[in-house]
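Dear U.,

For the methods section draft, I wanted the exact inputs and outputs in one place so we can describe them consistently. I've listed the two proteins in the order they'll appear in the manuscript figures. Please don't edit the token lines directly; just add comments below if something needs changing.

First protein:
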Amino acid sequence: MPRALRGVITVLCTPLKRDGSLDLDAFRKLVRFQLHCRVHGIATLGLASESYKLTFRERVQLAQTLVEEVNGEVPLVVGTGGESGTIAVEQTRAVEAAGMDAVLVTPPLITKMREADIFSYYAQLVEKVTIPIMVQDASGLAGPLMSIDLLVRMHKELGIEYVKIEAIPAGPKIAEVIFRTGGRLKVFSGYGGLYLYDVLERGIMGFMPGCDLPEIYVQIWNLYQAGEKGLAWDLFRQVLPLIVLETQNIDIYVSITKKVLHHRGLLPNPAMRPPGVGEADPFLDKKIRAFLQEIGPSLESNEKSS
């Protein structure tokens, strides 16, 4: 039975070898480090995973490897979606069989859609799969706008359990969705954690940051839930400069996340699949090293994940 989602669910990047192929050994190490940092869940094949550059076979490989490596320790989420309901159903069925707890489904990102079309797209998925669906409202990054009315309707008529809201502004929309569904539509935030200061106060069920600083995000969540809001915000302010740097666009986000992980010894290289942001930027590397040195006391060692 799928487990409920709550708390910090980190979205894994996709480690690559220099020849562009998947580095599954590095992927496993990255998964182990998330578990070592006591994240509440792990996701793969999101936008921050370069999922839009992966083949169908690679997507299935990553989903299966994640399930094997986690071995039931925490709930798992995998991203699916496509430019048609047929593609989304095929992707979702493939990863559903691997043993995920939920799927994070993007709407078509290129096709121009009315809200009735978006509703039909998710209705087709609900009809064909049994795994819980998290709707990705990523209109702040890519894809169509989704109104509050649409999200509420999908919850009430389709039984959608989760939504990840990355709209701009996120806070008011999150608050209204929670209010109008009585909290039954469980809301997660994303956008690299940029709006965390606002959305934690709105009653989110959890948030889905990147995988480069998992221990920091877990500390922020746990402190906030324990009523230590001042300490939570002090820690958030420490990492905010990096978050602002990362969240310029998706490719920059992936590039900097991989650079941070590389500097932490958690990735053998920061390679991205082309086309994408180039790696060579000595100034940025210097800034990342200085940032990691500054927040060093709050970071976990990666030795136990090896």
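Second protein (the one for the lower panel):
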Amino acid sequence: MKRILLLAVIASIVCVSCKKDIHLDLKSAAGLVVIEGNINSDPGPYYVVVSRTITFYDSNTLVPVTDAKLILTDNAGNRDSLIPFYYPGLYATQTMAGVVGRTYHLSVIVDGKEYDAASTLNPPVQVDSAGIQVFAFGGKQFWSPYCQFHDPAGITNYYNAFLYVNNKKQSKTNPINDQFDNGLTAQEYISPDFFINLHDTVQVELDAIDQPMYNYWYTLNNSTLSNLSAAPANPVSNFSNNALGYFSAYSRTLSHHVVADQYGFHRID
């Protein structure tokens, strides 16, 4: 859906100005397991991080869990045991492949308690184009990146978009649904971690995700971008047994590269 440029740019200015690290409500989450895992249609291995919250008043907020048992299965009968990898709390697959259309189930056992999540790897949606709108506001110029893509008709689709700025992937998430764009060409403005500057190189990644992961990223954005709450709510996890975090299966596509200039942008590939 095409956004009104003025509102989009002002929103991006506010978001960048208020950018904070991801916050959890740790006062009420002490001792909870936190799981962050992904599988996609790119070649593996795929990785899962397992940690645990500790009290709000300690110097560190998360500690790695090094003795977890992780099993990843799919609805085609494949099974994979994840192994510790590289640094404490990180686990890697050995044989599992990410295949479009399959549903994946991740089981994580910590101290005898099992945490389960499932996610479906939806088909990729190609980014048709990427660009940058230049806008004057308050006597200054701002550059607002966007992407265009054709949303598949007949089904409800969910996305999460990221920016690469000067070839570095941004952490800011941009959850998108097709409530107003189903079957149409969508144009979405994508927020960066920081302001886009003149001559920055920009690329867009568009991830096709399932509804539970859209809910997670949407509630995460709402909880971390608001300055109105001193203790933001935790995002809606797709794990059982009150675990925090997420398990996401997704397919991704990348746009071409564009460079911010005084007129907006020019394409370089």
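Candidate sentences for the figure legend, describing the second protein: The domain at 26-120 is CATH 2.60.40 (Immunoglobulin-like). The radius of gyration is 19 Å.

Thanks,
Y.
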